[in-house]
Amino acid sequence: MSTPICLSGLHCYPVKSLRGVAVDRSSVDGFGLVHDRRWMVVDRDGGFLSQRELPRMTLIGVEVESDGLLLTAPDMPSLRVGRPTFAAPRIEVEVWQDRLEGCLVEQRADAWLSRFLGVECRLVYMMDDVKRQVDQRYAEPRHLTAFSDGFPLLLASEASLEELNSRLESPLSMARFRPNLVVSGTQPYAEDQWSRIRIGTMELRLVKPCSRCSITSVDPATGVRGAEPLASLAAYRRRGKQVYFGQNLIYDHPGELGVGMSVEILEYRDEQ
């Protein structure tokens, strides 16, 4: 009897490119997991900052509280910041090719982040009335995302990570790949062939493999960049100039996800 496929991990990243939070259950709203990448650190011109240029961002811990966030970092006092109101000032921010509004949070958060990261930066929040569409090559106008790189959810499997780790001298944790959903009970890279799945009452579509960048080479525990896993992935997961690990997802209706839920494969990309 084959092992049932289930949701073995659920991860939220409240502030883009800062440390993630493992949760047992989460509502899924119009943007993705509730709280996921609704905050973002930007430079003085509104461009998003990430571990690509600032690997120390991975050392900043984030906890979601009822009215905002608790930020922690090595050798820094912890900082509570409130969620801004609709009356708070907004600025234009940029995430890749998308320009949209970000709501300024607090000047003391800007000062705290600037001090730790060593660059002038600001913390912004995405209000509910901001609509950022998913790439229309893979979705429809109603599909939205927050400050993610482009899609509301990212899925990876334990088996794929285990297969990758079998090629490495030192195994890596799933934290390198920053997925929202982790599944168990599959063969390595089985998710590449999935087109539509059901988890609980939610139906989700896997619409695009996730190309991986230098963030995966940053050790989440130290903020130090290395050669792996990109060097090994390039040997067998390359398509053109990109290497791939995980799948981007969209969905039509909000719902609820929880660790331990079964994953049902409704449709495959390549029907046999």
Secondary structure layout:
Layout: E1 6-12, E2 21-22, E3 25-28, E4 39-42, E5 61-65, E6 68-72, E7 79-82, E8 90-95, E9 98-104, H1 107-117, E10 122-125, E11 153-157, H2 158-165, E12 181-184, E13 194-199, E14 202-211, H3 230-236, E15 238-239, E16 242-251, E17 255-258, E18 263-268
Parallel strand pairs: 11-12
Antiparallel strand pairs: 1-2, 1-12, 3-17, 4-10, 5-6, 6-7, 8-9, 9-10, 11-16, 13-14, 13-18, 14-16, 15-16
Describe the structure.
This protein has 272 residues and is mainly beta. The protein contains three helices and 18 strands. The protein has helices at 107-117, 158-165, 230-236; strands spanning 6-12, 21-22, 25-28, 39-42, 61-65, 68-72, 79-82, 90-95, 98-104, 122-125, 153-157, 181-184, 194-199, 202-211, 238-239, 242-251, 255-258, 263-268. The strands form four sheets. Strands 1, 2, 11, 12, 13, 14, 15, 16 and 18 form a nine-stranded mixed beta sheet that branches. Strands 4-10-9-8 form a four-stranded antiparallel beta sheet. The protein has a three-stranded antiparallel beta sheet with strand order 5-6-7, covered by helices on one side. A hairpin with a 6-residue loop joins β6 (68-72) and β7 (79-82). The longest helix has 11 residues, at 107-117. It is globular. The model has no long low-confidence stretch (mean pLDDT 96).
